[in-house]
Amino acid sequence: MALDGTVIAALVYEMNERIAGGRLSKIAQPEADELMLTIKRQKDTSKLLLSANASLPLVYFTEQTKQNPITAPNFCMLLRKHIGNGKIISVTQPGLERVIDITIEHLDEMGDLKTKHLIIELMGKHSNLIFCDDKNMILDSIKHVSAQMSSVREVLPGRTYFIPQTMDKQNPLEVSEDEISKVLSEKKQPIGKAIYQSFTGISPVIAHELCYRSGIEADVPACELSEMELLHFAHTFSYLISDIKNHNFTPAIYYKQGMPEEFAVFPLESCSFLQSISYDNISNVLEHFYASRSQISRIRQKSADLRRIVTTCLERSLKKYGLQQRQLKDTSKRDKFKVYGELLTAYGYSVE
């Protein structure tokens, strides 16, 4: 399961609980697309990992340390200059988007109080870490995106920051049950697909879970649902949204045959047949889930390498065996002709 808006909501809640009011004591960039922030608040110290990796974008608290390059990259140096020892005012999520906005106060060179924003976009291959001023002007980003790379939005110093609206989706935090029913009643797609294509922050996993809780088949066209079915679904949807607003999160990982299959911040009734382990916060879920996935991936990679080596050796051995068989057959034929020739010579026949 990818980081959808519901998981981001749980992350934002945890970040506010742990680091709001704290100060940035260290800023490091261990990887080209990764930041490690060390935040001190009263007697507590937290390490926050921010990754804009295209294949595995992540945000979570960790106890692990990473080796930093001898010379800090330019983006890291800029952050240290502007917000080093800055105070974290708040952590917010616009709507239910896969975006986290860390608002930081600091003193500039003149001693004036300024506000900056460190924005984390967790959008798959479009993930980025963007540093903006209080007027939403981009100061820099960990990945520069030019007009040649994207026709939707440039992410370059001096450009205005905005969240691209690539699809016309509703904010589920602001819609009523009647609006949910109306939006879905006009969709010809299967209800499972219509949900995550109509509302921001909803992943296919959560869409399937909502269908399961509502007793509706996910592959039924939304426009074919009866009025009562739509009302029941809208009520189920609203109940989940109220859990987000009230921060009623119960993070858990679901395992299939000992392997992590899914994770969520709500109980997945559709995955009740799977073994589940609950955690205190979403950071622990993400760290354990992706660490397990990474370990399994490494094991598979190593086993694949071993299989490739063994297969290559077998193919070479079979080729050598085939050549030796042919050589042996040719040698046997030559030996037979030699014996036959000797017999003919013994009886006085001439062998040329």
Attribute tags:
7 helices; four-stranded antiparallel β-sheet; five-stranded antiparallel β-sheet; 22% strand; 352 residues; alpha+beta; extended
Describe, in plain words, how this protein is organized in 3D.
The protein is an alpha+beta fold and 352 residues long. The protein has 7 helices and 12 strands. It has a 5-stranded antiparallel β-sheet. Helix 4 (191-198) crosses helix 5. The chain is extended, with a radius of gyration of 31 Å.
The helix-and-strand class reads alpha+beta
Sketch the major β-sheet.
Answer: 5 strands, antiparallel
Radius of gyration: 31 Å
Number of strands: 12
Low-confidence stretches: none
**Mean pLDDT over the residues:** 87
The ordered H/E elements are: HEEEEHEEEEEHHHHEEEH
Q: How is this structure best summarized?
A:
The chain has 352 residues and is an alpha+beta fold.
Layout of helices and strands:
Blueprint lengths: L4 H15 L3 E9 L2 E8 L2 E8 L6 E5 L11 H10 L3 E6 L6 E9 L5 E9 L6 E6 L4 E4 L35 H9 L5 H8 L5 H11 L12 H19 L6 E5 L2 E6 L10 E4 L3 H65 L6
Antiparallel strand pairs: 1-2, 2-3, 3-4, 5-6, 6-7, 7-8, 8-9, 10-11, 10-12
